[in-house]
């Protein structure tokens, strides 16, 4: 018999079982209509209710204010690397960017197509194993961009004070830690996140944008790229990715049902603490990033003796630990502990690590 896998995938990644069950049912019969969720028009009251509830739940879970608009858009987070500067950065203006990993540097590359970019700090020289905290931002910058959690390296800003002190609009890529912890989301000018980790299914991303930041650039924007058009049309300027939005709705309902962001934050802290404590306690494993910058979403580590790496990976495979191999650019191991990953999966992984350590002692 096949063991129930423990899913540590980095994204797309684990979602609640109840979400998969209800999504499956709705593929055959959505809300007792006898129709599949895949065969109803998006401009029907049936689907409009899905979109409205998803937006309302996100607004509630993030505790947003009335000036912040919630959008569900196509294209993944990578499209936001381009859409953000297109909407917010004039060709004669400068935006400040923090370079904390490959995703951040991809955002920088796109921004340069539209205006000036001031890379205010980077930890590239140290292979992004820590977060560069000393930076100054010109008060005339159009915005300051950060990646709140660096999925590949396993670093996460724990203290956002340096950003709040910049006094320019904050733009954040929260793809890999949105809704995992309480942040003051009202402090952000624009937030974007691919949905495929904590929000739902791949194929859609969430954008939260302050209305007053829009309409200030000189350039003419293509219709589909202008956030204002999506706001006016309630994320239905064209056909939205209906199934992906529906899976987001189910996941957001689940999160609200278990108590919301504050409850999941405690649970995420508990999971991460168990895994980091285990890494720190066992000499055969070595953490890879600065302690203060450790991510609670993606935990990266290597073996003290690299020759044993393949052996541990094989053991993980044998015991049903899925997705623990590190990103191809970093190597080693990465266990992603997103919202839907149960504590029991971390217990199973840490038990396996202890067992392996004993064998090697
Ligand atoms: N930003 C971050 C922090 C990510 O982790 C990822 C993907 N893992 C992306 C951006 C790119 O997302 P997408 O594939 O949705 O374009």
TrEMBL record:
Cofactor binding mode and count: Binds 1 pyridoxal phosphate per subunit.
UniProt keyword annotations, A-Z: Amino-acid biosynthesis, Aminotransferase, Cytoplasm, Pyridoxal phosphate, Pyridoxine biosynthesis, Serine biosynthesis, Transferase
Reactions that this protein is recorded to catalyse: O-phospho-L-serine + 2-oxoglutarate = 3-phosphooxypyruvate + L-glutamate; 4-(phosphooxy)-L-threonine + 2-oxoglutarate = (R)-3-hydroxy-2-oxo-4-phosphooxybutanoate + L-glutamate
Enzyme class: transferase
Keyword Cytoplasm among UniProt keywords: yes
InterPro entries reported for this sequence: Aminotrans_V_dom, Pser_aminoTfrase, PyrdxlP-dep_Trfase, PyrdxlP-dep_Trfase_major, PyrdxlP-dep_Trfase_small
Binding-site residues for pyridoxal 5'-phosphate, renumbered to this chain: 77-78, 103, 151, 173, 196, 238-239
Cellular localization per UniProt: Cytoplasm
Domain Aminotransferase class V: start-end pairs: 7-347
EC number: 2.6.1.52
Pfam families per UniProt: Aminotran_5
Recorded superkingdom: Bacteria
Cofactor(s) required, per the database record: pyridoxal 5'-phosphate
Record PTM N6-(pyridoxal phosphate)lysine, positions in chain: 197
Annotated metabolic or biological route of this protein: Cofactor biosynthesis; pyridoxine 5'-phosphate biosynthesis; pyridoxine 5'-phosphate from D-erythrose 4-phosphate: step 3/5; Amino-acid biosynthesis; L-serine biosynthesis; L-serine from 3-phospho-D-glycerate: step 2/3
Residues annotated for L-glutamate binding in this entry: 43
Chief location of this protein within or outside the cell: cytoplasm
Coiled coil: none
Protein family (similarity comment): Belongs to the class-V pyridoxal-phosphate-dependent aminotransferase family. SerC subfamily.
NCBIfam families linked: PRK05355.1 (NF003764), serC_1 (TIGR01364)
Function of the molecule: Catalyzes the reversible conversion of 3-phosphohydroxypyruvate to phosphoserine and of 3-hydroxy-2-oxo-4-phosphonooxybutanoate to phosphohydroxythreonine.
Subunit structure: Homodimer.
Name under which the protein is recorded: Phosphoserine aminotransferase
Annotated source species: Flaviaesturariibacter amylovorans
Organism ancestry: Bacteria, Pseudomonadati, Bacteroidota, Chitinophagia, Chitinophagales
């Amino acid at each position: 018999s096949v063991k129930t896998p423990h899913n540590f995938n980095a994204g797309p990644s684990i979602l609640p079982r109840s979400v998969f069950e209800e999504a499956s049912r709705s593929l055959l019969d959505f809300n007792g209509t006898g129709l599949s969720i895949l065969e109803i028009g998006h401009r029907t009251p049936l689907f409009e209710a899905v979109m409205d509830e998803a937006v309302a739940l996100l607004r509630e879970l993030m505790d947003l204010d009335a000036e912040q608009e919630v959008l569900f858009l196509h294209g993944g987070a990578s499209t936001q690397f381009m859409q953000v500067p297109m909407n917010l950065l004039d060709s004669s203006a400068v935006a400040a960017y923090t370079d904390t990993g490959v995703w951040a540097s991809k955002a920088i590359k796109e921004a340069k197509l539209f205006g000036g970019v001031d890379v205010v700090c980077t930890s590239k020289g140290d292979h992004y194993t820590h977060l560069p905290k000393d930076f100054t931002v010109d008060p005339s910058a159009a915005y300051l961009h950060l990646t709140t959690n660096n999925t590949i390296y396993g670093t996460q800003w724990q203290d956002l004070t340096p950003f709040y002190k910049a006094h320019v609009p904050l733009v954040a890529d929260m793809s890999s830690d949105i809704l995992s912890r309480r942040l003051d989301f009202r402090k952000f000018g624009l937030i974007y996140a691919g949905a495929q980790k904590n929000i739902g299914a791949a194929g859609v991303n969430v954008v939260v944008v302050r209305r007053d930041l829009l309409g200030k650039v000189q350039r003419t924007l293509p219709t589909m790229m202008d956030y204002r058009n999506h706001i006016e049309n309630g994320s239905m300027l064209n056909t939205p990715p209906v199934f992906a939005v529906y899976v987001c709705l189910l996941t957001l309902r689940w999160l609200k049902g278990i108590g919301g962001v504050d409850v999941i934050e405690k649970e995420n802290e508990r999971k991460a603490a168990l895994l980091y404590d285990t890494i720190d306690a066992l000499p055969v494993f070595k953490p890879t990033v600065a302690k203060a910058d450790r991510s609670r979403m993606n935990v990266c580590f290597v073996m003290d003796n690299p020759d044993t790496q393949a052996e541990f990976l094989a053991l993980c495979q044998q015991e049903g630990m899925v997705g623990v191999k590190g990103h191809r650019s970093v190597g080693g191991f990465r266990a992603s502990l997103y919202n839907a990953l149960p504590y029991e999966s971390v217990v199973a992984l840490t038990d396996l690590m202890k067992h392996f350590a004993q064998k090697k002692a």
